[in-house]
Design goal:
With about 190 residues, the protein is α/β, with parallel strands linked by helices. The protein has seven helices and ten strands. The strands form two sheets. It has an eight-stranded mixed sheet with strand order 3-2-5-6-7-8-10-9, with helices on both faces. Helix 2 crosses helix 3. It is globular and about 50 Å long. The termini are far apart. About 30% of the residues are buried. The mean pLDDT is about 90.
Amino acid sequence: VYLLEKLAPYIADNCGAIVSAKKIADFLKSQRVKITPNVVLNYLSHLKSSFLIDKVSRSDIAGKKIFEVSEKYYWEDIGIRNTIKPYKLGDINKILENIVYHHLRVHDFRVLTGQLPGKKEIDFIAERREKKLYIQVTYLIQNEQTFGREFGNLLQIKDNFPKYVVSMDPVSQSNHQGVIHLHLRDFLLMDFQD
């Protein structure tokens, strides 16, 4: 029980972040809980099979391979996540990512997170039959650095599948070099017809 009481808040606080069993085990050791990465993996598997969290694997976009370590975890119910780790303003990006993830899953997409060269990340690669989408999620595009990170990462992908930046900025829809910028509300209203 003690391990679970330490692990659940860690996963809640790192919702949407790349985590590994070793990183979690190291964190728990700093909290004076001695545990191996294999035990952490078992606990994460149990949390997933009890429908509390869902695991998203990483994919190397250039090499098209799936990494077998360091996944992202999203909560099946944000209310439970906020009960375990009370909501604070800095959590908004995590919550928005969690919402977009579940919206894609509801529409039967297989969801991965993308890895670009130089440790750059694509929040979501959504695949369904012949359809593929690349999606970046952020609360607001407040400065050039955020703009460069969100749009720049997508512009590095050289295929012709749709690319989206989803945010809470007051924009109905705009286009920057083929990357579509949508308000979260408009993204959630999209009908992903094949």
